[in-house]
């Protein structure tokens, strides 16, 4: 599989099972040349007496806790509500109830009345919206509506609980009831800070430990660049670049690199504000005057 597909598989395993595994292939020089993703259900981790970990096929060992296990009640409630909604939809959301006769009727008449009603209501869904009940027959509903049961609101709350398990803001997963431009922009940044950044750090440390040698870690490190996700709109970015440039923090080529633009000649120079200088040099200048 391609590298992107392998990373996607490992990330899905990490989010659903709490852990991800890949077999590392190295060459004669000890350099990593390939990773082979493994399904987490086929791998068990054992902690040896010396503290090291041993990986083998099995069902027992020192395993991380799955996020779905931690929030299993929220997921179970969401699945139950989904099944209930499916059952109601399959019945065209027809209400349940009872036919009440003013006088006693025989068993055969009860069966006939029930069959007639079933044929009328369930036989043709598109034409069964109106019923005519005569002879003093009354209809008593035995079911409650989705609104009365707060079914829709509870399903929405379950969705928020699932999103909260992974620290994902509601607007990111399409829950936009209280969304506005200001909080959507803030929640997009919160997604990076509270969800993606901790997960990226988790992966970086695992890859540093597993893929780099002791000597290699002195020269190299793994890091996800999330700066692009934190960038604001073009006006806000250019205003920040202007301030950084005028105060001497960034050069033109550094700014162009942030915008995925090529370098320019003389673009590595920094500016120094005229009204600022080193404190010691200012004292020297004052004494000289």
What would you note in describing this structure?
The chain has helices at residues 3-17, 67-70, 72-90, 107-123, 151-165, 181-211, 227-230, 234-246, 252-258, 279-288; strands at 21-26, 32-38, 44-47, 53-56, 97-100, 138-141. With 289 residues, the protein is mainly alpha-helical. Among the domains are: 3-67, no CATH class; 72-151, no CATH class. The strands form 3 sheets. A two-stranded antiparallel sheet has the order 1-2. Strand 3 (44-47) and strand 4 form a beta hairpin. Helix 3 (72-90) packs antiparallel against helix 5 (151-165). The protein is flat, with a radius of gyration of 33 Å. The N and C termini lie far apart (72 Å). The model has no long low-confidence stretch (mean pLDDT 76).
